[in-house]
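ok here's Thiamine kinase-like enzyme:
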Amino acid sequence: MIPTCFSDYYSMIPLLDEVTEWSLLRKWALSEVYRVKLATCETRIIKWGGSEMAGEAGIYRDLVHPLQLKAPQIFEFVQLKDSGVMIMEDAGEKNLEQQPHPAHFLEASRELARLRVSATANLEKMLSKKVIDTYSVSMENFLVLLDDLLKSKKLAETEVLLKLKKVLPRHLERLYQMVPTSIVHHDYHAKNLLIQDNGIMPIDWSISYLSPHLGDLYCLITEAHAWSNLSREEMVSAYLEATDLQIDHLNWQLQIGGLCWLIKTLRWLVYGGTDIIPGSETWIPNLLKDVESLYQEIV
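and the structure:
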């Protein structure tokens, strides 16, 4: 039986009538993802997104594909007022969370370096100024997000955020002056990294944007250690295989990128994200500990 979230789309997407089997992959308040089997025995991924999650196809159209990044093919997309459905290539059955082998995490680090190089090289050639402006998150944006955290009921007057507010502006200014803009996936985690014969394919670009920061590598390093006991040094070394950065500069980018990722994630959580993802309230104390650790590294 067709899941309820797709009922309004039945007459608009003929493929839904060809589905013989639905397998739930993920279900949140604003997102449901299924692997479906068709009458032809082919498989597809069908994704429903509500509210803020409904614009993922636009990100593929405007950013991911023009920047020539490794990502699933989009076959069809239909959007209604408050939701959208996307039919995608089934690019692989296993992700890094299911098969957390060290070799896969190291390749994911190399893939991240390659996609950032590609994005930077293609950004001004392939994207219009309007698209760049639409998806860019500026230095000022991150400082506003930090201010929002300090005004929130949950984190108002949090000591580490007050300390960070004093030192972060100069680091962000340096970052935005020295490091070229690239794409930030912002959810470059094991669950969104598919294992393929020829490497790793990132999926779920629904919250990606343009910025120079390297928060994606920060997240990947954290998970690689938790899942495969890989060290930061090993992951950084793999990243450097696919880019020409100096290690000291990369380590500084990791610190500032991690802070950017943490600020944006905390802002999302305290202003409604905890209502969308069950149990995510418990993430906040650990995220603040991570902010404290990175703050200590940059002062």
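+1. The chain has nine helices and nine strands.
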